[in-house]
Design brief:
Alpha-Beta Plaits, five-stranded antiparallel β-sheet, 16 helices, globular, Uridine Diphospho-n-acetylenolpyruvylglucosamine Reductase, domain 2, alpha+beta, 4 domains, 471 residues, Uridine Diphospho-n-acetylenolpyruvylglucosamine Reductase, domain 3
Length: 471
């Protein structure tokens, strides 16, 4: 968080008996209760949201997680599980009087099975390490959230994280084959296996993916890996108008080409990224597409040629191919730095996450720009054009209440418009605290009641990450 942000709210006291039992069950170093030690756990990557927990505990295994949940149930203490705290919807913000269950010490890769193309990991393993471990074995873990260098695999599963490669390869859900989950009563279940096909019973595994820690605590993840693509080619196309860039995306998909990556930057984001990363991006362009194709070398060469032809046919100002793997990496890294680059401009940066059908992209971006102008707020937009996932990013100052009210009004209009186009409130960040007020409009009362019924069944006391997704 920005250093000028207000301090997290004071914490309500936890029951002394709970703290006594917690300290008896864990080493002294595994339990934090001092005010100054709790501050880093009072916020996540979401701007303007913070609340100090009553305590933080660091379990080392599923048995430790189960012990915390049993104690919490006995003393009726809310539990908020947490990894690296990179979430952008307030999913790991503590609630008053809670204990934070930090899973960062559960960070072992337990198995790499090259015969079955799977990897078994604890929830605190950093996502980049999952990718690197697979890559060293000639394998490929596709999900690549922008925070992959610091986010944890448990957090990715809890939020069903997406990433730049989502168009071709899907999101985290598509690579989870099994989960170990500790339930609210402290019991432990294993869901799934290494079988490619398994239709025995309800698909309970998928129920926990994207559940944001409200139904159970994930303590192991079995991931599906793929053979590493033999070749990649990265292209950069620039445009004088947003519509031309959006039409290019439609034309590429209509040509039955599914690139690995199809990313978009508007001019404001483009200029910030270039000033930050200095990779030679053409800052005079109104819009930029970063496109990557991967697979068999012959197929990659053919797709790259066809993509370049389509870009030029759709009035691209210029199309450039990365001359080397190093240049391709630099370009992709520059795109991943968009949030960091924009965050340098104002004290508060709010990265939003509205998704619409691809056919509505140009219309959605025009509305974002018009709404920003009407409410006199500063918004930069980038995102995953290939799957319709846009990140309108508000550059503001949370200390300026009048400006924040305008930001909130603009944000509401943007979400309402995305829903009117057949879109969704969130393509990859989750609901958490930040978007739960908007969820009833998207889902409707019957669906919301079904969510609540599932929550009541698995967490009857309502102690697991309460107040997230819905009240």
């Amino acid at each position: 968080m920005n250093s000028t942000s207000p301090q997290p709210a004071a914490r309500p006291a936890l029951p002394e008996l709970f703290l006594r039992d917690l300290r008896a069950a864990f080493p002294e170093s595994a339990v934090l209760t001092r005010h100054e030690d709790l501050i880093p756990y009072g916020f996540d990557g979401t701007a303007a949201l913070r609340q100090l927990p009553g305590a933080v505990v660091f379990p080392r295994d599923a048995a430790g997680v189960a012990a915390v949940l049993r104690l919490a149930r006995t003393h009726r203490v809310p539990v908020v599980s947490r990894g690296s705290g990179t979430g952008l919807s307030g999913g790991s913000i503590p609630v008053p009087g809670c204990v934070v269950l930090c899973l960062g010490d559960m960070n072992r890769i337990l198995e790499l099975d090259t015969k079955n193309l799977t990897l078994l990991a604890e929830p605190g393993v950093i996502t980049q390490r999952i990718y690197d471990t697979a890559d060293a074995a000639g394998l490929f873990y596709p999900p690549d959230p922008g925070s992959m260098k610091i986010s944890t695999i448990g957090g990715n599963v809890s939020e069903n994280a997406g990433g730049l490669r989502g168009l071709k390869y899907g999101v985290t859900r598509n690579y989870v084959m099994g989960l170990e989950v500790v339930l609210a009563d402290g019991s432990t279940v294993w869901l799934g296996n290494k079988c490619v096909k398994d239709v025995a019973g309800y698909n309970l595994r998928d129920l926990f993916i994207g559940s944001e820690g409200t139904l159970g605590v994930i303590t192991k993840v079995l991931l599906r890996l793929l053979p590493k693509p033999a070749a990649r080619q990265t292209l950069l196309a620039t445009y004088a108008s947003m519509d031309a860039a959006a039409e290019t995306v439609s034309a590429i998909i209509a040509a039955k080409i599914i690139p690995c990556t199809l990313e978009f930057l508007d001019q404001r984001t483009l200029r910030c990224v270039e000033a930050f990363a200095k990779v030679g991006l053409p800052t005079e362009a109104e819009a930029l597409l970063l496109i990557e194709t991967d697979g068999h070398p012959a197929a990659v060469a053919d797709e790259a040629e066809r993509i370049e032809q389509i870009c030029r046919a759709q009035s691209a100002l210029a199309v450039r191919r990365a001359a080397s793997a190093d240049e391709a990496t630099r370009l992709a890294t520059a795109r991943r730095s968009a949030f960091s680059a924009l965050a340098r401009l104002r004290p508060t940066t709010i990265l939003e996450d509205a998704t619409v059908p691809r056919s509505e992209l140009a219309k959605m971006i025009r509305f974002i720009n018009e709404t920003a102008a009407r409410h006199q707020v500063e918004v930069a937009t980038f995102g995953h054009f290939g799957d319709g996932n846009l990140h309108p990013t508000f550059l503001t100052d949370e200390r300026n209440q009048a400006e924040m009210h305008r930001v909130e009004a603009a944000m509401k209009e943007i979400f309402d418009y995305a829903l009117s186009l057949g879109g969704t409130l969130t393509g990859e960040h989750g609901v958490g605290l930040a978007k739960k007020a908007f969820l009833p409009r998207q889902l409707g009362d019957p669906t919301l009641e079904l969510l609540r019924a599932i929550k009541r069944t698995l967490d009857p006391e309502g102690l697991l990450n309460p107040g997230k997704i819905f009240d």
